[in-house]
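Good morning,

Attaching, inline, the backbone tokens for the sequence recovery test we're adding to the shared suite. The designed sequence is right after.
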């Protein structure tokens, strides 16, 4: 018995092509050749896509939905000059900056972006603080000032102005394993050598105050700069 074709019955309707809920990770060349240049709106949600390189066959896309796939930090977006809407909720994006760089250069017409329920998006809906999420919005809007709608709410004039002023300072500082080892050595090296230049009293006082660091945690206890690495369930 022949295996069922997951693309059986696919057809283009008024510029919209839906390939959702098919359990696939790639689009056949035949589909790309037949519908690529004609498709305006493409729905790939609820599949197993980790690569979007095939979208080079869809140069006229205006809307792209890839919710609930396996899109990660290394995804590569081809040039989509007409794309105005990109929705990638519920994927595996933990670092938003590489994606923002690609969207900025390859999707200049983008006005709607949604990245809810990715680790990189500290939205209040997934038990992160509002301050964390606002910093994230400033960072995104600094890179993509043409956005009119980000995630679950519209972009305001005051928010856009503030993002231009402070957005570049909202980038997440990521510690490598070597950074952590160097920091630990700097903090504990004196004791390991059996020598500490501080007098005993001063040394104890310094210990009670805590070691200094160039990375400041936020006041919520959720992590460096308020960005937690824990992935929470999203109601969407």
């Amino acid at each position: 018995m022949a295996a069922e074709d997951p693309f059986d019955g696919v057809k283009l309707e008024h510029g919209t092509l839906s390939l959702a809920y098919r359990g696939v990770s790639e689009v056949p060349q035949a589909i790309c050749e037949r519908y690529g240049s004609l498709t305006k709106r493409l729905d790939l949600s609820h599949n197993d896509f980790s690569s979007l390189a095939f979208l080079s066959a869809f140069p006229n896309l205006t809307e792209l939905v890839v919710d609930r796939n396996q899109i990660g930090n290394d995804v590569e977006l081809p040039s989509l000059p007409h794309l105005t809407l990109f929705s990638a909720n519920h994927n595996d994006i933990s670092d938003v900056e590489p994606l923002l760089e690609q969207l900025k250069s390859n999707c200049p017409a983008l006005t709607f972006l949604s990245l809810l329920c990715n680790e990189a998006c500290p939205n209040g809906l997934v038990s992160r603080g509002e301050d964390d999420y606002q910093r994230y919005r400033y960072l995104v809007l600094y890179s993509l000032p043409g956005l009119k709608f980000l995630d679950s709410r519209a972009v305001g004039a005051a928010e856009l102005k503030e993002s231009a002023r402070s957005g570049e300072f909202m980038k997440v500082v990521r510690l490598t394993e070597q950074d952590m080892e160097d920091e630990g050595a700097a903090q504990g090296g004196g004791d390991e050598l059996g020598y500490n230049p501080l007098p005993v009293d001063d040394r104890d006082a310094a210990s009670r105050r805590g070691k200094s660091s160039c990375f400041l945690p936020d006041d919520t206890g959720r992590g460096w700069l308020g960005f937690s690495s824990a992935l929470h369930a999203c109601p969407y």
